[in-house]
């Protein structure tokens, strides 16, 4: 008998991760052609005129070029985040850039925002018909050759160009894989950066790093609240790792189960702070979301929405259906 979590039930986990990463998008586009669209309504949410059928979305980085969204929508997410997009096209970082650890249910990457660039991204979005099947979040970043001093120009360019297509923007200055990027989160830089970048009429969120101290997280929340962000996504990947994880280098970021505890900790910390200051803004929890029980915990801890990336690799896109089934069984 084949055991429930076994790789035989999830044959894509038998494919070496580098190859799976390269062919996965093509396989997803193909599967999308034959998939009957599914919509799962559970725990719906209205926020700033947007309607979310359910609170579970696709995390940033899964659909970097916005060319998978049409397929992803058929699997029943509550929303999709596309990008990170940068103004100019760029390749991934050199060397091995992705890893998968089945034992720890963890992924590792040091991709560094590979994407086809803003022009191609815009063309993809032009091909989507309004109304979209779910709210569409667009995650924006900077090219690796753009200095920190000029970084705001990359963000402004992406936001201006993509304004007509976005329901929500996500500012990504928390990836560990673009040298110097996280410096923009530092107190001396954040306020002036955000004051320049927050130009959109669309709601704009800031994605945070789990590797900041709690004190720094609270300082970022306070500064970015004052600058006018509409909410936060907690969290991006972590540079922390367990000694028993055998990832190719000690650079890069880890996601999946090992990030779960810190992600929830960050959520509780921020949620408590917002409550204490009577700030009513959006909180999205991401990092090791893997079961309905886990989603419930995050929704009960102050998040209005959650996202997943690693579970879409370990469980496949049936994850959206599975979470809906678990919700139905428990309610
Ligand atoms: C291979 C890979 C690529 C990612 N690329 C991006 C990205 O381009 N932009 C971004 O904001 N987050 C990116 N992330 C981070 C995820 O959006 C998410 O914050 C993180 O993986 C934690 O969620 P998880 O534990 O469900 O995977 C990436 C994660 C992985 C594993």
CATH superfamily: Aldolase class I
Give the radius of gyration: 18 Å
Helix content estimate:
25-40%
CATH architecture: Alpha-Beta Barrel
Structural class call reads alpha/beta
- Strand order, biggest sheet? 3-4-7-8-9-10-12-13
Give the bound compounds.
flavin mononucleotide
Question: Uncertain regions: pLDDT < 50 for 5+ in a row?
Answer: none
Measure the end-to-end span: 31 Å
Count of alpha/pi helices:
10
In sequence order, what are the helices and strands, one letter per element? HEEEHEEEHEHEHEHEEHEHEHH
Tell me what you see in this structure.
The structure is a single chain. The model has no long low-confidence stretch (mean pLDDT 93). The strands form 3 sheets. Strands 3-4-7-8-9-10-12-13 form an 8-stranded parallel beta barrel, surrounded by 4 helices. Helix 4 packs parallel to helix 5 and helix 5 packs parallel to helix 6. Helix 5 (187-197) links the parallel strand 8 and strand 9 (204-208). It is globular. The longest helix is centred in the N-terminal third of the chain and has 18 residues, at 17-34. Helices cover 34% and strands 18% of the residues. It is α/β, with parallel strands linked by helices. It has helices at 17-34, 69-73, 118-126, 151-162, 187-197, 214-227, 260-276, 292-300, 310-314, 319-330; strands spanning 45-47, 50-52, 56-63, 79-85, 98-101, 106-109, 136-140, 168-172, 204-208, 231-234, 253-256, 282-286, 305-308. It contains 10 helices and 13 strands. The protein starts with 16 loop residues before the first helix and ends with a helix. The protein has a single domain, classed as Aldolase class I (TIM Barrel). Flavin mononucleotide is lined by residues 59-61, 64, 84, 98, 107, 109, 111, 113, 139, 172, 175, 207, 236-237, 255-256, 259, 286-289, 308-311. Flavin mononucleotide binds next to strand 3, strand 6, strand 11 and helix 9.
